[in-house]
Please model this.
Amino acid sequence: MRIIGLNSTRSHDELKRPNKTDRTNEGERGHSHLVFDRLRPAPPHGSSLGGIYTPMDEPITVSFRWTAKEMLLAQQLHMRYSKQGRKLRRIFMGCGILFVLLGIVGFVQQHNFFSSALPFFLLATVFLAMPLFIRRAVLKMYSQKPDRDMLVTYEISPDRLATRSDVASSDMVWRIILRAHRVPEGFLLYPTDRMFHWLPIHGFRDSAEVERFALLAKLKAQQYDHAN
Model:
């Protein structure tokens, strides 16, 4: 009679019956997984993970009526805050003051107002009154716009900016926006140095949407400026 491995093996019944130690170890492993699952940090609020939809992915809607007053305000802010606008204002103001001084000097030297001072004063008037001429040109341009006094709506997402009205619509990607400029009255978006899109503050749904757009513009535009 042969006896092989009597002390190193368990009977068939013992193998089928679970060991108390094994059950204890399995319970400890299950408890440890539960603990680690509880300790695992949750994803930050408003972040995009994979294909999960988050509030940051919801389009931002800006709607306003494109009135003459709105267009004049946008043009005024462009002249005040843009590099090109500031440059033109300095040129107009500098030339106006220069011609006034030349007119005064000519009158003092020759004592003849019409021949020595009046031409310079007329030129000074033209340059100093340039904002009035620009205003008139903007109003003329507005009268020729097909979407004048219509509701304009922008829908902005992390990828695109779409605009529509009753007569036209357009769609553009963020990478063409060279500069985004935030001013107290709204946002100026520049695809070129001379062309801009105007998004007034009153067109946003609430202040939270304004801040969401400001953060998006800061991330997406090639340059972002904030005028206090």
Remarks:
- The longest strand covers residues 60-65.
- Residues 1-18, 20-54 have pLDDT under 50 and may be disordered.
- DSSP finds seven helices and eight strands in the chain.
- Residues 81-143 form one domain.
